[in-house]
User: Fold this.
Amino acid sequence: MSMNSADLINNAEKEWVWNETPLLKVRGLSKQFGAGCIHCKQPTSDEQEGSRCQYCGSIWACRNLSFDLYPGEILGVVGESGSGKSTLVKCLYFDEETTVGEMSISSYEDKTSNLFEKSAQQKRYIRNHVMGMVYQNPLLGLRMPISSSGNIAEKLFAADHYHVGSIRQRAADLLQKVEIPLARMDEPPKNFSGGMQQRVQISKALANNPPLLLLDEVTTGLDLSVQAKVLDLIRNIQRELRVAMIVVSHDLGVIRMLADRTMVLRQGLIVEQGLTDQILEDPRHPYTQLLVHSLL
Amino acid sequence: MSLILKAIGLGKWFELSLSHQMKVSPFQNLSFEVAKGEFMGIAGPSGIGKSSILKCLYRTYLPSSGEIWFDSSLYGTIDLAKATERQITHLRIREIGYVSQFFKAIPRISALDVVADRLLPLGYSLNQARDRAMQLLERLNIPEQLWQAYPATFSGGEQQRVNLARAFAVRPRLLILDEPTASLDNDTKLNVLALMKEMKQDGTTMIGVFHDWDVMGKVADQILDLRKLQASKEQEQMAGM
Assistant:
């Protein structure tokens, strides 16, 4: 690698950048809670109009969200509670059924088909093979009474790995990466502290080597030093494995530390998006300004 | 000589709507050009918008009006004011460096890794990156026992030196410097000057704000004097009336 030139780019790299395509493409994602009625068939994109239908009380939790995520990139999603950010990742992970919209993942099948329209069986396959999810509440991502290594094995079985010896080795490697002592790898997560449970959950989500990792408020509720440890872990994982991530958080400090780009959600709408340093230093939407100036 | 950067009618305003509506504009209708390999200094009293100009070039601020044409190796001629965020991300990794006025310490990362981190996206292995980082920390007079420490605990001058080491570890096409020598002692200042000259020789174009006319005089080929510019604009306006 030559340092003696102001050109850090060779042709192969140029070609790679030019041909780069998003790993994840989401277009017009909307999610409605409630039966809906004739008055709220379509979500409005009008900020002045609330997300709740005044006739039937249904809520459009996500309204017409479109964005791309590139390989190895971290996209931050920030907003107050009720802004729709958790619903968004739950839709992406098929935990919630998306009402309208399209999603495609470039490393899956024909790259362009709408994954929201796949059968339940195919959705399960996609979840198990190309995605990892870490929930705020470890209860949702882990089976508390079975061993930590067993939790990881479960994710590996789901992703079609059946060799018991290599599964055990992989579990040991992963747990070591998240600093769970090997001597405790066969203990169930219910014996662990909240921070440790969160780290086991992260290792489980990474077990199938997913190109896409979804993180929903993963440090919320942990005390500061534990929070720091989990954040450092996420940073290191991104550095080593180059996994693309969507990091949902109400905490701009977390977003500042992790995200390359950030979307600000409010009442189910993207009110602003940009490079994270630009969102923090030059916020344009009044709500983003309020958020930034609320930062401690 | 060919141009690497050309700003046309660049302007920025902030609309703040917190306690009350407020509009602030650090600069309007600013045009300048920089030739390849040149060093352009920006001068003017504090508060006149020097840092805001630099932040617009780096896209930490989104320009409100105007164009910034950059001769990119990746994309050819590209308007930085309109480039997509992904394009800017690639440019920041490979072509455009930035030294901020104040070092923002990333928590719990050693000085060595703060510098090495700059190189990882370029395909360096961790060991290669750390080797290169050590060279730079040494040249910027950071004592070896501090390399594994967190820069958050450093003095202002030491933090700034880590900041510079990070920027100088690569040879971007364009380097943007915001008062890089403000808090440095004389010896380090001389090393920084030497490093900037080396980078210039290697072909890096630089745009910098300096507090210190002495340093600016030593490195700059061209000086954009904002006070003069402002004065001549006011004169034009008067003449127009």
